[in-house]
Specification:
Blueprint: H1 15-22, E1 33-36, H2 42-50, E2 56-71, H3 81-88, E3 91-94, E4 97-100, H4 106-109, E5 120-122, H5 128-138, E6 157-159, H6 165-173, E7 178-182, H7 183-187, E8 193-195, H8 205-209, E9 216-224, H9 228-241, H10 244-247, H11 252-255, H12 263-275
């Protein structure tokens, strides 16, 4: 299928890093396609345009839920977005003043929460999951450009790759810890982990797809359309990527962690891609 082209090069980056490479220019070493776990920012689109990339398209490829999980042996409790903000923000508001986060235990945030030390394993700053988490939890409750939009760095939050079994092992061995991860990692370890409702809403498939669950997010693919030499190969790849064999509810992408869009959304995108074929 790609016999006329050089073998594709696939690199693993965070969302921000991948978009930076994508927008760096149209030279042979810059990527034609980038996956993203959040929409491209206005500043990133401007950077693309500054570097001569004026023609690129966006596909909403599916959905994911950012899940809060702990061991099935841990006592269950619910969390609100506001409590999660108070547990993780570098600064919090106390008596109408923004101060360095003083909370060491959950019970200090609310007497209804356990008398346990706050310990949360979560993705690093380079991760799209982390960027999405920050956008959903921290920034809406913070002053613009203030320290409260950043996660605290005093040991309460421990960075870890959210898509590996290591975080599962950490939660199994630490009954007072919480992990931040994608929906499928939880789904694949349901005999070991339990999810938290957030604002009293459980992270079910239907709640994630409907965006009822507060930590739902869409996943995206961006691709360039101005490089005529590579455009056909790009379309062929995307048509394969969005074929029903890979993209439906029982396909390989779902087994790897994607929550596919509803069938009518998939069909609309498939038809649109076919219409772009030169």
């Amino acid at each position: 299928m790609f016999s006329k082209y050089q073998p594709p090069v696939v690199e693993k980056t965070g969302t921000g890093g991948g978009i930076n490479l994508f927008c760096a220019g149209s030279h042979p070493d810059s990527p034609e396609i980038v996956n993203a776990s959040r929409p491209m920012k206005t500043s990133e689109k401007r950077e693309c345009h500054r570097n001569g990339i004026n023609e690129f398209k966006e596909i909403k490829i599916g959905y994911d839920g950012i899940i809060l999980a702990h061991s099935v042996k841990s006592p269950p409790f619910d969390l609100t977005l506001e409590q999660l903000f108070k547990a993780l923000a570098m600064e919090v508001s106390i008596n109408n003043k923004w101060v360095k986060n003083p909370y060491k235990k959950w019970s200090e945030i609310s007497p209804h929460l356990p008398d346990q030390t706050i310990k949360i394993f979560g993705p690093p700053a380079t991760s799209g999951t982390r960027e999405a988490f920050d956008a959903l939890v921290l920034k809406p409750r913070c002053r613009q450009e203030a320290m409260c939009q950043y996660i605290r760095e005093d040991g309460a939050y421990i960075e870890m790759n959210e898509n590996t079994t290591l975080i599962v092992e950490k939660l199994v061995n630490n009954l007072h810890a919480i992990g931040i991860m994608g929906f499928r990692l939880l789904d694949q370890n349901e005999e070991k982990l339990r999810s938290f409702p957030v604002d009293s809403i459980k992270p079910t498939l239907s709640n994630i797809l409907s965006k009822t669950y507060p930590l739902s997010r869409a996943l995206y693919v961006y691709f360039k359309t101005d490089n005529k030499d590579n455009f056909l190969a790009t379309l062929q790849y995307l048509e394969l990527f969005t074929s029903e064999t890979l993209w439906n509810e029982n396909g390989e992408l779902a087994r790897k962690g994607l929550i596919p869009p509803p069938k009518h959304e998939r069909e609309k995108i498939q038809k649109w891609l076919k219409g772009m074929t030169p």
